[in-house]
Fold this protein.
Amino acid sequence: MSAALERSKLGKWGEDLAAKHLASLGWTIAERNWRCSTGELDLIALEPVPGRAPNLVVIEVKTKSGLGFGNPLEAITATKLLRLRGLACQWRRAHPGIGEGLRIDAIGITKPPGFAPRIAHVRNIS
Amino acid sequence: MSIGSAWSIALTGLEGTLIEVEASITAGLPRTVLVGLPDSSLMEAKERCRDALYGAGFGWPGEHLTINLTPASMPKAGSHYDLAIVAAVLAAGGKIPREVASTCVLMGELGLDGRVHPVRGVLPGVVAAVTAGRPKVVVPSGQVGEASLVEDAQVFGVSCLDDLIEVLNGRLVLNAAPVAACRDGDDPATSALPDMADVLGHPDARWAMEVAAAGRHHVFLHGAPGAGKTMLAERLPGLLPPLSTPEALEVSAIHSLAGEQISGLIRRPPFSSPHHNATVASMIGGGARLARPGQISLAHRGVLFLDEAPQFSVSALDALRTPLESGWVSIARVMGTVRYPARFQLVLAANPCPCGMNATAGAACRCFPATVRRYNERLSGPILDRIDIHHQIAPIRASLIRAMKDAPESSTTIAARVAEARARALARLAPGGFCCNAEVPGAWMRRELPEPDGGLKILDDAVQRGRISSRGVDKALRLAWTLADLSAVDRPTREHLAAALTLNQTEWMKTA
C-alpha cells in the first residue's frame, strides 16, 4: 500500500508543479481533477491569446521519479489518448461558453531524487 | 525538426536495391512510427533498436520519431535494417556526425543487449552497394570475410553497438580481409570429396561419368539397388573443374542468400541431393512473401542429384523443365517476382522397377508388368528428352573385382582429362558465348562447327530406322563433340558418333 501511496503523492505533487508552471506562463486554471463516470482529467486551463478569447486546453500530467527508464510521456498510449478525447468532450458539453476550441496538451515531469524537476510540455497531442 | 539518414540494401532475389533509411524527430508525444512498407520482422526492428540504444546509454528520442525507408513503395523484409535504423536515429538526434552515417551502407541485426547478429545475403548486398557506388559497408564482424569477397568494398566489421558508434564517429577501422589467403585457394572441403578410386569395376559407368563431366551432360543412371548409382553420382562434382571467379561469386551469393555461412568463395561446384519427398517450392524456390532459392538454385553451376527419381512427385519433376531449358527460374510471390539462376547438371538415378530386380541377370523381378510400366512412366518424356546420357549399371560380379589388378583411377586423374577436354571445348565455343557442349543449341552447332569426320551417315541411318528423333541427332552430335574433346582430336569421327548414339539411347531403345 505504501508504494501506491508514494505514487499517488508523486502524481499529486507533479500536478501541483504543472499547475504552477502554467500559472507562471499566464494561464488560468479552470478546474483540477475533474471526475466523471468514465475517468478523470488532471488539469483544465485557459491559454491567453492576444486579441480574442483564451484557448481551452485539457492537460494530462505524467510524473516519474526518474529511477526507472523511459520518458513519462511514453505512458500516454493511443488508447489513453482516445479516452482523454472523450473526457475532454464531456467536460466541454458540461461547461459550454468557456474559452475557445478544445485542445489536449501533455506535461511530463521527471524528478530524480536530489535533482531539480524537468518539465516537458507537448502541445496538441491528439 | 531534425533529420538523419543512413543506407541499407533490400534484396529481391540476388538483386539489391539501395534503401535510404531516414529518421526525423519532431515535437509530439514520444512515439516511433516506421513507414515504407516494412514486413513484420522489420516492424519489430524499432523494439530491438530502442532497447539496444538504451543499453548502450544513448536512450531513444523522447519525441515523435518517424523512420522512413525509401523508395517507400517497395516492400521490405528482414532484420538486417537494424544497424541503418540505429545510425539514422543517432544522426537525427545529433549524437553522431551526420556525414559518416549518410555515406555508409549498413547491414546487420541487433540484439537487445547491443550485440550485432549475422544476417542472410551479405554477399549479394555488398555487391549491390559497391555497384551503386557506395563502397563503404558495415557488416556483422562474423561476416567480414564474406563481405570482403567483393572487390573494391571497404568493409567495417562490427560486433556490438559500441563498435558501430566508433565507426560512425569517423574513427574508422578498416578490417583487413582475414580470408584473403584462402580466397583464391580451393575450398578446404575438397579433400573430403568422395573419390572415384573407391569405385571398383564399372569401367563403362566411370567412362559415362567422365563424359558427363567433360560436356556437362545430364545423366540418367539406371540399375538394380546396390549397383553403385548413388556412389557414382556423388563422385561427379569431384570430376568437374573448379568454378571461375565470376561463377564462384554468383554461387556464393546464392548460398549466402540461403543463409549459409560463407567464409571464402565457393570454388567447388556445389552438389545438392534433395530427398524424394521434396515439394515444388523446395525444389525451385519458395517462401510466403518473397521466394528464397530452392535446391535447383543451390545446385547452380554444380550437380543436382535426384536419387530414386521416379519416387519424386510428378509436379516437382516437371517443375524442372523450364529451368533445364533456360538456366533460370522465376518465382512470383505477393511481394514481387524473383529470378534465380539455376544452371545445374542433372543426375537422375532410378531402379528399373519397384522391387529393383527387373532386367537384372540372374535375379527374379516380383513386379507385375503394369507396375513396372507405371513406375517408369513417372518420369515424363520431356524430362527424359533433356537427358543426354542414359546409362544402365550392371551389378558387379565378385570375379570382376578380383580380376582387377590395377587400382582404379582416382578423381584427380580423371578431373585432369576433363579439364583438358573443357579447355578444348571452350576454345571452340567461346565465339558463340558457350562454355561446354551441353549448352550449345543445335542450330548453332550445325552452322558453326565442322561436320564430323566420315560424314553423318550413321546418324542418317538411325533417323531412317526411327531410332532417334531430330532432337536426338543434336544430342548425339553434342555427345560426339565431347567424346572428340576427350580424345583430343579436332572433330568427331565415325566411332565417336557411334559411341554417342549408344550413350544417349534409353534401355528399351537398345533392346528394341
